[in-house]
């Protein structure tokens, strides 16, 4: 199989669902500083029902290995974050 220049490998996009927290560092196991953050969505609801999804991508950066950060941003305690990133190897 030939490699197509500019093609994205099959497993390049990774998603993690993590517990929300106070604004600041949030652990996302596997994310690396060289990766590219694609989106951070906040899912809010009771039990298994999701009642609201908010795009918080603009607030977050990959600040260290296994860590995304939104210091000064929205507190996400009690919700789940759906973090999508492009893994660059």
Tell me about this structure.
0% of the residues lie in helices and 47% in strands. It has strands at 13-19, 25-27, 36-46, 49-55, 61-64, 67-69, 80-86. The strands form 2 sheets. A 4-stranded antiparallel sheet has the order 1-7-3-4, with no helix packed on it. Strands 2-6-5 form a 3-stranded antiparallel sheet, with no helix packed on it. Strand 3 and strand 4 (49-55) form a beta hairpin. The chain is globular.
User: What would you report as the Rg, rounded to the nearest angstrom?
Assistant: 14 Å
State the strand order across the main sheet. Answer: 1-7-3-4
Give the overall average pLDDT: 90
The SSE order reads EEEEEEE
How many runs of DSSP E, i.e. beta strands? Answer: 7
Q: Which structural class matches the secondary elements?
A: mainly beta
Estimate the helix proportion, in percent. Answer: under 10%
- Described by the principal axes of the CA atoms, the overall outline is globular
Main pleated sheet: 4 strands, antiparallel
User: How much of the polypeptide forms β-strand, as a percent range?
Assistant: over 45%
Query: Which runs of at least 5 residues are low in confidence (pLDDT < 50)?
Result: none
End-to-end C-alpha gap = 20 Å
Count the helices. How many?
Answer: 0
């Amino acid at each position: 199989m030939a490699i197509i220049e500019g093609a994205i490998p099959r497993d390049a996009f990774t998603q993690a669902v993590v517990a929300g927290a106070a604004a600041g560092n949030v652990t996302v196991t596997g994310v690396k500083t060289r990766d590219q953050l694609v989106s951070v969505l906040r899912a809010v609801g009771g039990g298994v029902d999701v009642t609201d999804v908010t795009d918080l991508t603009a607030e977050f950066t990959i600040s260290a290995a296994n860590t995304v950060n939104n210091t000064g941003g929205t507190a996400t305690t009690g919700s789940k974050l759906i973090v999508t990133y492009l893994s660059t190897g």
